[in-house]
Each structure stands twice: as structure tokens, then as C-alpha cells.
Fold these 2 entries.
Entry 1:
Amino acid sequence: MPEREFELYLSLLSRFLRLKPAQHDEIADELRDHLEQRLEELAARGLSRDEAIRMALEEFGDAAELANHFKNVTRLRKRKLIMRYTYGTAAALATAVLIATGFWPQSPHSPLPSQGVAQEGSGGALAGDESDELFPVVAEATGGAVVRADNAKAQVEAKLAKPMGKVDFNETPMKDVLEFISDATELDILFEKAQANDAGISVDQPVTLIVRRTTLTAKATLDLILEPMQLCYTIRDGLVMVGTIAANNEIEVYNVRDLVPENGGAAMAGAQGGMGGGGGGGFFAVDSLVPVIVAAQLAQGFGGGGAGAAAPMASGMGGAAMGAHPHAASSLAALIATTIDPESWSDAGGHGSIMEYNGMLVVKNSQPVHAKVKKLLEMMRESIRENPPVGPAAAINGGS
Amino acid sequence: MAKLNSELMRGSLDLMLLTVLSGGKKYGYLLQQELRDASRGLIDIQAGTMYPLLHRLEADKLIRSSWDDSTGRRRKWYELTPTGRKRLSQQAREWHEYAECLKNMLSPVLEPVPRTA
């Protein structure tokens, strides 16, 4: 009785396990045997077929977690192998670090990349109670469960923000590099072979990145490795997926009402008042950083079809949008398009786009670019806080 | 699902699996059922926990596996190795002592008859 759901689950598990084909065939055969027996038993008890399948799979937990259990068996052996790659080579000094800090020279103490993120989630492991989140990734497009998906994303981001220690890859195959990062962060990293092949990159692509004097976060490490190859990572359902930048554009909406130059002070007050009075949005209006985060969540809310999250936000934004300055926002758009990965925008032949709408920036680009946009906006807000109220206008005009 | 506190069980699952296997060759599903029966339904180990554990026990050479296709269904059977058997009797003794010790220690606390929940 070949069950499509089982096969999907098992193939997902196989992908996580990264074992030799013969090994994961054995695991798959064993688990399939178990699943089929369990299904028969549950069916005999009178459960519907769908119910029985769901229950049988639930008892295994999500594929990523199960794969992790299995991997713990082999992890020690693999780690030894990678240590040979990483410590066996002598080489040049680190050059490439701190990608995001250069954008805003006016900001006297710009935060280091990722520090903000590092304080966000608890960084717990994929909890057992999130067990059904991974299976639907393959079975259908992500829908519903927006809050849980956001949670999973925040957890992944927190793990990526942890320091990795010294990085020493010298002509190390991509798959071993990703495996190393995966072990260090306890995250599952999937390499989208088909996408990467389109860009002419295989899992054996040699990677060289040696950073000895600075402790990189996993996120910075991934960015440094992937960007030169036109690859990026995206976080989806608790997984880190590595694919091409071209194939992984996402839309996010940034509320930049507080960054428009004219009537800077009034605009900011307007933004907060609008948020607070916007119906159900009261808890957003804490400080000027919050709208960005909220805007990002809104974008995810729309993407994931989360009506519950979208409704209060829409009204909050309605309030905030009043009195926006289209010109200023589009010059902010121009500023972003010229300072952050210029070649990634459609004007320069890339795949990204940026548009202003009622004091909102609607940005379509890869997650790394989104991260930089967020960082840039945060820095701008910080510099506004330090030099109110003329700061923002002067800064933006100076920058564009 | 777990009818006993899973924190309490964690350290002893290896031992339980080895114990059930000491009764002879078993495949995963059967092992799970027999463990449930042997514990009078108190211990219901999840498949997602059991299989990785079995693989680890095999990697540690405490059990070994073999495939059997004779029933028309490819099935993996597990059995104790001599090392596993030795480890089982040694750990069983340790656990027994530990349980006795804990029982004695806890008895004063348990004196005023535990309330029924």
C-alpha cells in the first residue's frame, strides 16, 4: 500500500539526513514498514484513512527533528572530518567582514550587524509541538499558521545570529561547509540543487573563507559565502534553504512614515498616533523601530494568508499613512536602490523592485537584501533619535 | 502521549529497549508494542524516539540488525549482541540500586498518602 504522504515524509527525511543512498534507503524501508503496520492498526480501530495517516506520521514527529535524532548517531564522526578541513590549513588574514555597517557614516555608533537580532528569540531547538510544520512545506504551499511560522522564523534567526567561532574554509566543498554551519547552529540547511545548478553551482563547489580575527555569526558567514555566487538563503518553516538570489525574491512592506524629511517631528507623531489609534494596533506604538518590525510581519501575514494578523495592521497603517510625502519616500527608495546591492534591482538588470506607496516602501528582493534594508532603516532611525528634529531631512538629502 | 514523565524516562529508555530485546529478536513495531504491554501501558515510546535510539544502540554494538524478506515485506529485526547482554545486566543492577536508594529517600515525603489528582 504505497502512501504518497509517507513517501513525501520519507523523502524529506532523506534530504535532511544527507547519508549515503544505501543508508537512507534502509532507514526509509524500516520506517515505511512501521508506518504501514501502524496505519493498518489505526484503520482497524475505525479511524478514517486521512486521520490514520496523520496520526501515524505525527508519532514520528517532524522530519527535521527525526533527522536530527538520527544525525546525532553519526555527528561525532562527521565533525572530526570537518575539523580536518578547517584547522588543517594555514592561510591569509580575514578581509571581508561587517558588510552592513558602511552605509550610514553619519551614525556615530552604528550597531554591529546582527546584534539586534541576537537579542530577539530564545533560540530553542525545533520544539516537538511544532511537529507538523515541516511536512506541509512539500505537500502544499505554506498557508495558515502564520503566527507559528513567524515564531519558527524568529527562532531560526536567533540561531543564525549566534557567533560561529573562527571560520576557516579552504577549498572546502559547499556541502561540507553547509554541514558545518548546520552542526554549529543546530539548524537544518537545505541546498536547492536545481536552483543552484541553474547558476552553475553544485554541492561540491569549493568554498574559501577564512576569518580569524573576528567572530562571525552564522548569518554573516552564510552571507559571505553565498553572495559572491549569487546565492542566498531564505528561512522557510524553520528551515534554512539555500538557493539562488534570482529565485528567492520576497515582498516586504516597510513603514517609513517617520523617515520622510518635511515635518519630521509631526510626521513621527502622526505615525505613532496613527498606529495607536488604528484599531487593535495599540501595542505597536512603542518606539519608532517598531513599525519596521510590524511592517515586516505584515508582509509575511499577507504572504502566508494570515487574515487575522493583517486586519488590525491595515487599519494601523491607514492611520499612519495620512500626510505622507511621496517624494521623500521615493528618494528614500532611490537611496536604498543605490546603496544596497545596486545590481540586484530591476533598474540595473536585477530581479528586485522597490516602490513607495503612502509612506510605505514595498520592496521585492532576496532576504539578505531585506536584512540590509532593515538595518539601514534602523540606522537612520537611530540617527534621527540622536539628532532630532533636523537630522532626518539633512541626512536623507545628504545621502541621496 | 507519555504516561510517565518523559524527563524521568529519558535516561532509562536504552535499558528498556535492551530489556525487551532480551526476550528475543524483534522488529521496531513489535518492540514498541511489547514495551507498552510490559509496562502495563505506562510507557508508550514514540516511534520518532525509538528508531534513532535503536540505531544508536546498533552503532554502539549493543544490538545488531538483520533484514528479512521472507514475509513478502522487507523488515528489519533487532537482537541483543553479547556486549548488549552484558551491558543490560550491569545496567539493570545499577538501576535497581538507584531505584531502591531513591525509594528509601522518598518514603518520608510520601508518608502522608498522596492525594488523588
Entry 2:
Amino acid sequence: MSEAELARLQRRLDRERKAREEAERIAERGLRDLYEANRELDRRVEERTQELFVAQQQAQAARVAISSFLANLSHDLKTPVNGVLGMLELLQEEVQGKQAHLWVSSALESSQRLGKLLSRLLSYVDLESGAGALTSEPVSIAEELQQVADVWQPKALHSKQLVSFDSLLDAEYFITVDRLRFKELFDEILDNVVMHANPGMVRISAEIVEESLHVSVQDSGPGIATDTLQTMLQPFRRGDDSSTRAAAGSGLGLALCARICEVLQFQLKIDSAVGQPTTVTIGMPAAVLSTSAELAVEHV
Amino acid sequence: MKGVIFNAVEHAVIGLGGDDLWDDLLESAGLEGAYSGMGDYPDEELVALVTAASQKLELPASDVLKTVGRAAFSFLASRVPDLVAQVSGPLELLSSVHDVIHVQVKMLYPDAKPPELEHQILDDGSLRLTYQSHRNLGDLAIGLMHGAGDHYEVELDIAIEKEDAATGTVVFLVRELAGVRS
């Protein structure tokens, strides 16, 4: 092999070596950049997580403060409102003259609404903060729901509605539950129906579906739009948020229902569409159901 | 220019004329020629290599670029084997260069400046490919397109519809010649 050929081979070798070293340098730089980028990413994730944690804490603190403020406010307001209510009731009996009687009735009705709003607010805040402990006792489904229907019938008549209870149960069922919350749940549902639904039938029914108890309240329309259905379970959101709304209401009733269901571990479902009846269904788990009061006591 | 292009040229030259030809070209161009695929090297080095080849082989630079491009295709194709296997022919491959291959290139090398390619499938099935690059390497592109045809065993007819050296733009009309596919 000539010297020139040897020199050429040597140059090829040098070339290859240099290219390899260059490749290694580039790869190392790439890896280092990647490592730095990863560290930066880690740092930012950590930072964001921390920010999120702080924001969460602040939100939680704000929620507690609002709850406690609302609870105190409602509580403080309840006493004078009850005083006003009592006085107005007395005044209604004493007052003379048709016009004066109307004014007192109107004042009484407004005070009753105010009282109810305060009760709801207190109840909601109690549930939100978990302050009120739940009790447990066996409640006869049919008896309790019949009572709900009976209590609401006179008020429903003012809205030209007929309330019925149809039991589709093959036996007497008991539920182990906080009776007051249970009653409150159906009172709120009926209150909502009586205030907003069309004249017609309001049908409460109870049946067993796949071992759980389904209690439905179906009205006679006018139905709820789909986008409204999605927000109406949030507090202070009314089905009709417009200022021209016809019916009164705080927008707290259904939110309270949702919260009670959550606490009692019931499933709440609302089926509706504009121009259709609305059906509110409460699903109660098999675990709290029994066919005798004695067995129900064992759940307590 | 990315080192991988120099590697493709080196591969093509060695395939065409052996290691000695590559040595000769580097020597007459006055280049060391240690190209790493991941590295970046001055565009002028490619110009010097093409000039050297053109002088040595007594061919116009455009022919050198076309020949080298055609021979360099297989090297570049070996870098994206899945993509080359996925498509059924050269026109389909050319249609995907800009949106697939160049996207990958830019992902690996954010500072890379591959040519801008726009494609349009015409009613008769042929392809209008607009190439634009400040490097003015339209002839290399022609060679690579023929190389793609060779890979799929399809002969291509490549006509230049429009050319503007000032902007480095060339509009190609590429069609497959019927009955050539084996």
C-alpha cells in the first residue's frame, strides 16, 4: 500500500472518529437539555401543585366563613321573624275591616315565606357544614308518603292540583332513616311542584326497582329545559332565572333536596323536557330497606 | 444544513463511485467531511462538494444534484422505514413529506429549515408539488423524487411548471408513467 493510500485511509479514520465524537457531544448536550427541561417541568408542577393547594385551602376557608355567616344570620333573623309572625297571627284575629284584614294576611304570608326561607337556609348550611348529626329510625314508607300527600293536598288545591300517593309495593316496607330529613326532602319536592307545576295531577308513587326503592313525584308539566335541568340543583339557581319570573322562590329548595339526598345516600334524578311532565325520582339503597319494623331497627 | 443530508450525499457518492470518489471530492473541495447526522454544517460545504463533482465528472451541477439525489433516497428512506412502508407509492409519499417527515425533523431539530412543500392532487391523479427553499436545491428534489419512484418501482415523469430562482420556488408536476410498475 502506497503512502498516499495509507494517508487517505488515515484521513477516513480521522473523519469517522471526529463524526462520532461530534455525535456524542450532540447527544450529550441533548440529554442535558432534556434533563434540565425535566427539572424545570418538575419545578413548575411542584409550584402549580402548591398554588392549587393554597387556593383550595382559601376556598375551603371562604366556604366555612360563608356557612358560618349564613348560619348566624339566619339564626339571628329567625327570632324577630317568629316574633313578627306571632304578632301578625294575633293581629289577624283582632283586626276589623276587609281591607285591613287583607293587608295583615299579605304581611303574614310574606313573613311565613321569610320564615321558610330562613329555615331552608339554616338546614342547607347545617348539611353543608355537617353540623347537624343524623338520627336513624324505622319509617314506614307507605305511611310517611301518604302523610306527605295528605299534608300537601290542601295547599296544592290552591294551585288546582290533586296530590295522590300510589304504592306499587307488594309488602309494607320500612326505611331506616333520619325521619326529619326524609320528611323535609319530600316537603321540598312537593313545595317546588305546588309552586311551579301546572294544574292537574301530582302523583307520588313508590316501587321496588332492582332491590332499591324508587319514590317518584310526577307533575303535570310544564316541564323543564335541558340546560336548566343541569344547573337547577345548585344553590340559589332557579329554574327560571329571569327577572320576569312568575312564581316566587329562593332557588334553594332543589339544592337542599340534592344535599339531603347526598347526606342520606339517596340517588336524585329529574326527568323532564319542555312541555312534558317532570318526574323527580329518589332512589333509596336496599341496605336501608326492610319489610318489617323489627328488622329495620337492626339497621339503626 | 443538517448532517443527515451530508450523510445521504456521502452514501450516494460512495454508492456511485466508491470511497475513493468521496475522498477525491472532499480533497478537491478542501473539506474535512466529518459529518455527524445530528450536526449542523454550512450550506457552502454542499455547494463546494457539488462544484467539485461537477468539475471532476464534467457534468453540469444540476445533473450532479439529480444523480446524487436519486441515489441518496434509499439512505433517507431508511431513516423513516415505517412511513415508507405505510404508503403505496411515490406520489403518496411525496404528499406526506411536508406534513409528516418534516414535522418529525423539526421535532428532533427545532432549528432545522427543511424546504416548504405544498402538494395538490390533480384530477388526472398527478401531483403538483411546490418546493420553496432559500437553498435553491430543486434539482436535488428532482433526484430524490426519482429515487422514490425507484423505491416503489414506478417511473416518474417530472416536469417543471414554474420556477423562480429569486424566491427559490419551483413548481413540479409529477405523474406516474402507466404500465411501468412491476
